[in-house]
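Hello Y.,

Per our agreement to keep a running log of every chain we model this quarter, I'm adding this entry. I've kept the format consistent with earlier entries: sequence first, then predicted structure.
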Amino acid sequence: MDKIWNYQNPVSINFGKGIFDKIHQFIGSRNYALITYSDDQFTSYTRSLIKTSGKPALLINDIAPNPDFELLSEQAKLYSEIKSKPEVIVALGGGSVIDSAKVFSAAENGFENIKNFLETKKGGEDLSSTPIIAVPSTSGTGSEVTCWATIWDKKNSRKYSLAHEKLFPEIALIDPKLMMGKSYELTLVTALDALSHALESIWNINANTISANHATFAAKSILKILPTLLNDLTNINLRTEMASASLSAGLAFSSTKTAIAHNLSYPITLGWGVPHGIACSFTLPTILQSVVSIGGFREESLKEIFGDNLTKAADNLKIYLERFNIGTTFLELGIPPEKSKKIIDEAFIGERGLNFIGSKENFLKAADSFGLLP
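Predicted structure for the entry above:
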């Protein structure tokens, strides 16, 4: 490699079927807040948790997809005003739950500190950091092993990343049994999110050989497992394999962050309501085609995943996505030409776009060959 690199992930990872039943051992005698959902499945989990660890000091169970400023500010107010301050936060649910928990972890002094930090990149020292036990219920976001949370300001059509090293969860409990019962659609979009994390961490200026190893394992596993899992949603062994792959993708991009596919995805989710996993994966074939001669360990990693002919692999990846009825062009996602071009232009100058090791010129060439743009 041509530069010094660093890989660090401080999260204590605990993985296995039934590990959730031992969560009381990780909470211990600490006063805790519980962040989760309110549906029947999670109400059952909440009752189970209360039996072993007592009643939480605070229960927030109205978490919405794509956490937004407006709701988060109300929830954070509840958290900051609680008299008996939680010593640990249990985040039980999908990426939106874990991301919201990170907001509350940082919000002991109120949401305005977080808002200021997001908008100015200053004031990180004013953020609190209550420890988090992250218990993901989906295989996709990797938020249980990262120090950032995706936050939306829908009123002003903005997306932010709350990123601070203090926000790594203390513990991740990954129990494949919690993934059972997830729908076809949720299984698909979360798996594609994880696939995107893996590939994005490879064509990334921050990539290193350790992150690439995690990414390679993750991508190979997801591509192999996903079609079978979607036809056998109650198979605990396949759920376990997918949970392991998602975890490895999370470990990969916890070191590198994401890149161009994610920067392209945010306005698509915000403006057209396209699920995140689809919005960040529909451009993957185009991006892969644009980096076929990337060189070094990155190219070796991509070839280990897809085979030696990466041009053919890009075609095959397009076919792979289409078999799940996922459009691989802007028009197929309902985005008009004038908006598509603006999205691309802005994506390449955004923070995540600047992580991309490829070039806009090669991307546009690949986009032309794949019909990504009209």
